Every structure is written in C-alpha cells, then in structure tokens.
Amino acid sequence: MCESHRAARHILCPQCDMAVALPDLKPGEKACCPRCSTTLTTAWRAPRQRPTAYALAALFMLFLANLFPFVNMKVAGLTSEITLLAIPKVMFSEDYASLGTFFLLFVQLVPAFCLVSILLLVNRVRMTPGLARVLARILFQLKSWGMAEIFLAGVLVSFVKLMAYGDIGIGPSFAPWCLFCLLQLRVFQCVDRRWLWDDIAPAPALPHFPKAGIAGIRQGLRSCSCCTAIVPAELRECPRCHTHGAARRPHSLQWTLSLLITSIILYLPANLLPIMITDLLGDKMPSTILAGVVLLWSEGSYPVAMVIFMASIMVPTLKMIAIGWLCWDAHGHGRANSERMHKIYEVVEFVGRWSMIDVFVIAVLSALVRMGALMSIYPAVGALMFALVVIVTMFSASMFDPRLTWDRAQEHNHEEFDGHGK
C-alpha cells in the first residue's frame, strides 16, 4: 500500500491531535475521535446533489427576502415598513457605517459567498486548481462568521420590544428569510471538509506510516488546519492547500490573551455607554444593555429579558472567563483535566456568535422605528463597542489552540478506531 493511500485512511484529530485510523463508512455514518469525541468525517448520502439542492434553494430564498418588505409597524395611524437592505442604509445614514458593514458582511455577504463557493466546489465547476484551493480555504475560514440565524433571533426579540408601542406585522420577505436561515445551515452541515478537499486534490504522501492512538506531534506529524491533510511537522506549507501552519499554533496563548484583554477593555464602555437612543415626542431617552433587560423584565417579558441578559451580559462575561481559564490551564496550571477543558472550549466556540443578537436588535429597531416627531430610535456608541467585544472574543477563541490542553494529559495508547458512529 502506498504512503499516500495510507495517509488518506488516517486523520489527526484537529482538537486533540490523536492519530485515528478511519473505518470504511457507509452513507449516513460518521467517524468520531475516540478520545475527545470530535466528529472527524461524515459520509453523506448524495454528497454532491444534497448540498447543491439546498444551496440553490437557499440562494433563491435570499434573493426573495431582499426583494420585498420585511417587517412593518403601525403607531397612532402612522406606518413604517422596511426591507432587509434598508437596515444597513439607516446605519450608514446615522454615521454608524461600521454597524452597517457588520450587518452586510455577517448577515448577507458571508453566507451568500459560502453558498456560491459550495456550489462551485461540489459540482466541480471548471476552474484553475489554484482558484479552487483559494475558494475552499476562504469557505472554511468564513463559515463560522455567518450570522443569518442570529439576526433572525434578533428580529423576534425586537418584535417583543415593539409590541408595547404599536402593532407589528411581517412582510412577504419574512418567510423566505426564515427558510434561507434553515437551508443555509443544512448546506453547511451536508458538506464534509475532508471529503471536499479529497475531491479537490489527493492527500500528500507521508514519509512514514501514522500510528493510530498516538498524538501526531509525537510522531513528527501535524494536521493541516485547513484541509485536514497529515504532513510532516517541520513542513511549514501544506502541499495540498498551500496553507502555512505548524505543529502547534505559534504564540497561541500570547495572541489569545492579548485579544482577551482587548475585549475586556472594550466590554466596560459597552455596558456603561448607551447602545440606543429612543426619541419619544422630543424626549430623548438613552438606554444601556442592562437598562433594556430591566425594562423588558418590568413589562413582564420575562423569557425575552432572560434571553437578552444571557446573550448580552452573561455569555460574554462567562466566555471571557472561560478563555482566560483555558489559557491558564494550557500554560501548565490546574489539574490537567483535558476532557473538562475541551468541553469548555467547545461551549465557548458555539455560543460566542450569539452575543451579536443585541446588536441586531438595535439594527432592526433603528431601521423600523422612524415615526418622525412621534417616535424614533437611533443606534448609539455602546452598540459599536459591544459588537467589537463580540468580534474580538471570537478572534480570541479562534487563536487558542485546543491541542495545548491535551498535550498536558498523560498519553494513553488507544487501539485503532474501527467502530462506526451513527
């Protein structure tokens, strides 16, 4: 058996670095790391047809969602109606171009780009090998930055806030947007990173046969963070995707801590400064994040108040504490409980984006509530500060190398993984 074929049957877990021998998977099955339970690869049924159908449907729903009115509001005989594209226009007109840019990028452009890239790659549209590699690299780097479903949650929260002032209605674009959110999530789920890269180019040959159950760094091997190929640890550039990397992310803890400190510095003004200003009959009322939670609670909207409190106050605070804890543990302190720290890392990675929900609530309120002298809502500097907190903490979590927590654990010799996971 040639070394390239042997390499294709093995994978280094991206979370704990253990070498795993992949079994022959039937359609609908997945292989998981026996040490940290991370999903390594999934054998999807119809791996080209399913993502193609979902992606085409999602792009069509996105097109429809931008054509027609999205939501409307009626107050004292006055009606306000907005489209999705009107939201960033309001941000730009109010000198908050940064918030408008965040909306366009995270809610519309990033998901659309990822869907188009998937269509081109899974259907082998004729292009140069270099362009295919670039598209795949950008796709997997940007995938976690799409926030269409978080924006939808922000819209629902804004409905609850506005019910006290008038009648809220949905436009023809609301249903297509809901379908778009569901379909684009399904597209990302149906595209397996390992399968897609194997389809673009074969895995590079290795100087020696990987031993399952042993960390790659102990065998002089590393996993490419982009295409999952196993390459020699001293090789800086992956032969398949040309991504530069190392056995462990250089200066991971230093970058993580510096970004964490930056987010903490931004978090203080984000909570102290107003995030929006409500102009009601000429009386301007600034509102902070905590004040908005208190207002919702006093009006009896307990579930929504809890959602905002958890997403905007509790989650960012706990996330920053968790990132600091991960760095402290990876630096050699604590009890070296790698399984517990890995679970904390997974939670941090999952919940980080959802703190943007309050920023999207402000975007919807600012665009929709335009009633002249009667009532208007404007974004404030606190919203920008809070958006930066979320973005910086996401960068901080992405800079942390989770394999550092497993490097402290005692190495156990695992038998080759030959089971199947449903």
Descriptive report:
It is a single chain. The chain is mainly alpha-helical. Helix content is 52%, strand content 11%. The chain has a domain at 249-408: Butyryl-CoA Dehydrogenase, subunit A, domain 3 (Up-down Bundle), CATH 1.20.140. It has helices at 3-8, 49-65, 86-93, 97-122, 129-142, 148-162, 174-190, 193-200, 252-272, 289-298, 302-330, 338-351, 357-368, 381-399, 403-407; strands at residues 10-12, 19-21, 30-32, 39-42, 71-75, 78-82, 167-170, 221-223, 230-232, 276-280, 283-287, 375-379. The strands form 5 sheets. It has a 3-stranded antiparallel β-sheet, with no helix packed on it. A 3-stranded antiparallel β-sheet has the order 11-10-12. Strands 1-2 form a two-stranded antiparallel ribbon. The longest helix has 29 residues, at 302-330. The radius of gyration is 24 Å and the shape is globular. The two termini are 29 Å apart. Residues 1-6 and 411-422 have low confidence and may be disordered.
Strand order of the largest sheet: 6-5-7
How many E strands?
Answer: 12
Radius of gyration: 24 Å
Order of helices and strands: HEEEEHEEHHHHEHHEEHEEHHHHEHH
The CATH level-2 architecture of the domain at 249-408 is identified as: Up-down Bundle
CATH-assigned fold name of the domain at 249-408: Butyryl-CoA Dehydrogenase, subunit A, domain 3
Spatial separation of the terminal alpha carbons? 29 Å
Shape: globular
Count helical runs.
15
Note the beta-strand portion.
Answer: 5-15%
Structural class estimated from helices and strands: mainly alpha
Mean of the pLDDT scores? 86
- Major β-sheet profile: 3 strands, antiparallel
Low-pLDDT stretches are 1-6, 411-422
CATH class of the domain at 249-408: Mainly Alpha
Helical coverage, percent range: 40-55%
